[in-house]
Give the backbone structure.
Amino acid sequence: RDVTDALGLRSSGWAQGVCTGDYDNDGFTDLFVTYWGANHLYRNVKGKHFEDVSGAAHLMQSRVRYNTGCAFVDVDGDGFLDLFVANYVKFDPAATPKPGANPYCFYRGVAVNCGPRGLPFDRNLLYHNDGDGTFSDISESSGIAEPEGHYSLGVLTGDFNEDGLPDIYVACDQTPSLLYINKGNGKFEEEAVMRGVAFDQNGKATSGMGVDAADYAGDGHLSIFRTNFSDEFETLYHNRGRGIFDEVTLEAGLGQNTRYVGWGTGFFDFNNDGWKDLFLVNGHAFPEVDSLHIDIHYKDRAILYENLCNGKFRDISANAGTAFAEKHSSRGAAFGDIDNDGAVEIAINNQNEAPSLLKQASRPPGHWVILNLTGTRSNRSAIGARVKLIASGHAQYGEVRSGGSYLSQSDLRLHFGLGAAQRIDVIQISWPSGSKQELRNQACNRVLAITEGE
């Protein structure tokens, strides 16, 4: 049932993205929504309702911004979640050229909405959580605002160079994507080019939209997947250790679906075999493409790639059920096991129609576990916690993160498929505070709550 009004979340505006995290460490997950215009921070009041505290938290902006992706992340390890907000363009509806007004306002000869090319760039933002319910803008002092010339969309956090500090990756539209490396002294340095995650394998900037990361190869490193525009490959960057990446899209079998415009995406283990599979939604940016009568459509199907456990994927969408035959112009995609039965569901936001909820028709064959982590010295949401899980000798890795996909928020809990393993040998947790924790000989097929230090 619709509880928007009852929870105090009714708002009117051009909303863009969402991320969650317990910014005040009171044990209740809060909600941040980005807009073209004023963003909203909704404080969760004891699990009963939300209150808009954007002004009180000092998150109001001095001018209208086109805010897009966001993520809560504790950048300095003080136990309080800071907030990263991506920005797309400086957009004034009254001053924006009309369809067909200049070369950036055509697609295959058809007049369409302009941009982002030809529109002014804007800079990304980082807010420091001061621990008293307020935030301070540290975009300039941290180096986050320094890179210019990027149209920023999807936001992904993770310890990509494996130094124990959270980094920030941003998928950028028609411009090089960004990788902010956390230097541990309150500063970030943008290193996407030198680390191999700015361009595709031809050295071309693509139209980055959605993004996710996982250890898909079973080697202990967080690799990055990014969705792009039609006539571009979706991009898979394999992390070969310490944040040095190789673009392996074609080698991994992901270069076959180039006619789609990809948006929301996520790694998840749909069959619980212990290997992360890959899902993405599609839909063109321009409704006018249907008038071209070519093999590109405004509404298109989603794609499911099965992980073959050898660094490669195969498209199994045609055999994955009727949901993969339906066509929508989709954008956001969020992942979570909403009924705690071991099978991950996918919530999809569709343009100008009702959302979709994808649920598996039958329970996956493999065993599973869901880890629900709570920080004590770390932030309560445990965002940034890194987990190594071993079952029947097979090691898997996961990281709790806010934001991701395309302007979406998935379950903060970590889902692991276990295959035929009936027990978990060991769970090792590296908390954001720096503390380590280990659990042994755990049962599977359940939600396992773990509190830092207990």
